[in-house]
Each structure stands twice: as structure tokens, then as C-alpha cells.
Amino acid sequence: MVVEQAPSLFVRFRRPMFNWPAFSRVCLVLLFAMAPLAAAHPAAGDTQARIDEAAVAMSRGNTTQAVTAYTEALKDTALSNDRRAVVLNDRAVAHVRLGQTRLAFDDFNRAAQLFPENAAIYNNRGNLLLALGLPKEALKDFDRAIVLAPGYVAAYNNRASTHVKLGSQADALRDFTKAIELAPQSPAPLSGRGRAHLALGRPHAAARDFTRAAAADARFAPAYRNRAEAKLETGQIEDAIADFSRAIAFDANNLEIFILRGYAYLCSENTASAIKDFSRAIELDPTSPLGYRWRGLAHGIAEAFDDAYADLNKAIELDPRSAVAFAYRAQVYKLNGQIEIGFKDIQAAMKLDPGLAEVHWAKGELEEAAGRNEQAIEDMRRAVALKPALFEANKGLERLGASLDSNEDRIISGAGVDTWRVVARGQNHFAVSTEYPKLRVPLEMGGEGTPRLLEWESKKPPLKGIGVLRFYGGATSGPSGPEDVEMVAIIDVTSNSVVGIQPHRQGSKVATWTWDEGKVTIASVDGVTDEFLLRVVKPKDSGPPLAGSVAQRRYTSNEQKGAGWSPWSESYGLAEPSRGDRRPSAQPRPQQQKPKTLFDLLFKY
Prior knowledge:
With 605 residues, the chain is α+β, with helices and mostly antiparallel strands. The chain folds into 3 domains: 23-183, Tetratricopeptide repeat domain (Serine Threonine Protein Phosphatase 5, Tetratricopeptide repeat), CATH 1.25.40.10; 230-406, Serine Threonine Protein Phosphatase 5, Tetratricopeptide repeat, CATH 1.25.40.10; 409-552, no CATH class. The chain is built from 23 helices and 12 strands.
């Protein structure tokens, strides 16, 4: 969220927040560097001196002194209505910082009465309403701010965040996108749109926006934590660990990040590092059972069984109704060869919460240890159905030589191409192929509708093993009405992984694709350039290509190549480096709960 003082209706965008922390923390971010706001309307010398004094005090964190100075300035009966409104707005911001909510509202309301054309007043009051858990009322203020100032980036950004809290992800995406159009180098709306994509189940789109946010401001810490969560969802474990580490560098006392990185270390079989992270989480909050649960499981994997039992017993002591703690202890008993005792813990877990994925996973582990593989597979599949991101259950199915239960897939008739077909599971759609049985490509949509595959192409050397799957991505609203969207999934068939999913076309706008020996660079339809590393390429001994040679050519989809031509069908060239926009590779609501984060989905019970 952003609260600003307002020298005009069009205020430079400042960094917002999107994760809705406690109000006290919100207040710290509501206020930014403040400048004198009354320069356009000179007042008597003493009044101006008080205003200047207040602005300096605010910039130095002397908020009480600032309130006193603003109050003295407001005693000037000669102040015009618009000038008085600006000072009231500034004092309201100071009251917010001091946690004086009623006084802040009084000042904002009086300012709006005196100067109803000042968009910043509504933006600031909207932020306060939002921080107090009143998103519907906040939305009205942001609407008013945008009507008054159609180019007010912060208001679009804040309204988008309000839509997220109200569960209106499509409206949030539109407002975040508008803020990005107005301020393409601002990281906050990019990060906000990424969170909206995550809430809609589009981790690849989310990762793309988080990467852009980090590139726009390398010190924008939320981008790294958010991108790490997106990478973790897409199975890119090592990349996720690297981003969690960057996030920790900015926020070294965040328990959630240590738990998430510890989990990622477990997924990568780095148990020692996982134990260190879980231990740090316990240091940060010894009363939370989370760290003990996870460290107990990690100790069990490391065969430090006494330590494992001690941690899991502590977790159960802190939360006696934790089905997960009983399930993890059952798994440790299994690892220690005590299968029958493990089943007793599974029985306890099932009584506490039979609908938890972790309980079914642990039961499957014990069934496998007892030699009942068919039952183990059934339990593992049940776990994945309940929580698709549960790494342990997916790994168990792979170990048992089983796949996900394809009986749950619904084939979408007429939506396939070549050996590929579209299947639906719940609300999600995937592309699957008989040629690549281990691949399930999530068809992340760019608009409303049902996906339909349009083209599949396997790249030739030096990018053999890379494939490109183009598909219809729905319809979205454009300047003159609905616009069709085409998306492209870049796939590494050698590792059975999705490298990225990119928008290729929206209406008449088409992305530019430049293929190199080891990477692809995409000038996207939204005007931002993205880059994906595909292969590690050794330097050539022959030196760089000569200027003007064919090797420097960029291929775009606007060239006339015939009806069947597409930008990914051309030969490979060395892309001319782009300048400036190059991207590196890589409180509750009465009606509806806010979208869950990956941390909530994995660890909150």
C-alpha cells in the first residue's frame, strides 16, 4: 500500500505492500519521504516555516514533533481551503504513523470536504481503510482517486491490491497491468500482479513478473521470496533455494522464509542444511510447533532418531491436535524400522484429521514398508489429490513406479494437436502426450476460456530436446473490446520440465522471439523483455560474429513467412543484446478469506 503527500494530482509511484501484515507494520510502510506540499500556494512566513519544520520532522521520524508543527500551521485563518486540505492530509499521515486512527480519519475527512478534487487524499484514506480490514470501503476511495487522476499509478496499484483481498483476481490483474503500463520500471505492481497470478494457479506467469520486479529493483526483497515460492511450485528447487537465500539477506528474522527454504533443502535431499534452517526457525519462535515438526522429520531422514523423537514429541506437546506431527512421527518410526508403532500414530492422525494429505502420505510410506504396494500407491495418490505440491507423495509414487491416477483426467475433445491432447483435472488444464508420458504441461491461461493446442515443434540442434507448444490462452479485455490471447510453453523434454510459459499474442500485438544456441529472448506483448537460459554453451574459439552477419539477425513473427510460419521455426542466430530492459534468467475479511500463500498451503494446519 502507498500513502503519499500530494503536491499535485499526479504523484510519482512509490513502493507498496501486498502481503497484508499486522496494522502496526502497515503503518510503517504507509509513510515515505515527505516533501513540503504547499510550495504552489505561499503562505505567511510563520505558517510556511511550520510546514517546512513538519516535513523535515517527518523525514527524520520525529512524528510527534511533525503533528505539533502541522497543528500550529493550521491555526492560520488565512489558509485557503485547498492549502488547508493539503496540511490536514499531511497531518493525517502523521497520525497514521502514530497509530492514532480516529484523528487520522478526522483529518482525511475534513481534507476531502475542503478539497474534493485532490486524488491523493482518497488514496491515503483508502489505504487506512484497507489496513483496518475494510476493503469494500477502501475500494470506493481508490475508485474516486482514479476518476480524479486517471494516471495515478499508486491508486491503480492499491485498488488492485484491494481486489486481491476481496478475491477478485481478474480485476486485480487488470489494475496491476494498468499500473505497470504507467510505470513499467516500478517493481511493486509487477510483484503484486505476480501474487495475483499465484492465487490463480499460474506459477510460471508469477515467476515471470517476480523476475521483472527483481530486475527493476535488485533491493526489492519481496520479489525474491515470491519468486522462490513460484519456483518451488514448479519444481525448480535449486532456483527456489537461491531466491529464498536472497530474501533472507533482506529479512533475516522471518520464520516463514527459513521454514520454506528448509523444506526446499529437504526436497533437494540436503538434510543438513534443512536442519539448520528449521533450527533457526525454532530460535525465532520457540513456541511454534512448525519448526519442531519439520526438524523432527529431517532428523528422522538423517537417522538421528533420538533427536527426531524429541522434536516431534515437543511439536505434539505444543499442539496436541496436530495430525501432521503424528504423521511425521509415524514416518520416523518407519525409517527406524518400527512399522507397527508407526501405524498407531497413523491411527491417531486419522482420528484427528483424515483429510490431510500428509496423513495419507505417511500411511502410504508405512504400507510400502509392510509390502502392500497397491495400498501404498492408493494412499500416495490420495495425498497428491489433496495437495498436488506435496513433494514427498510425488516422490513416493515415482519410487513405486506409479503415476498420478489418470482416471481423474477428463479429455477435452478437439483441443489437441499431433500427439498432444488437453486434459482437465478439477479447474486446471494440462497438455499430455503419449510421446512424453512423464510430462504434464500446465496450460496457464491469459484470459477467460478453455485452452486449445495450436502447434507443437521440436527444436533442432543445438537446442535438441527443447520443444515449443503454442496454445489458445483465452480472451481478455483490450482497449476496444475482447482480445484473443495465445500462450507458448517452452518445454525441456530431456528433463521432463517446463522452462517457462510466455504470452505470444494478444489481439494485434505479437511477441518477438530471438533464439540463440543456449537461450531464447522474448520481447513480450506487454513491452518487457524476458530471457530463458536453455543450455550451457561453451565459448566459441572463432570469436564473435562480424557486424551485419546473418548470425546477428532477430526473427519476429511480423515477417511474412507464409501461413504456417511461426517465430520459433527459424534457424538460430546470436541475438543482439537489448539495452535497458534485459531480464536475467533466472487480516481476515468478513465475507471471504484472503488468498493463501504457498506457506499457508504447505505448512498451516
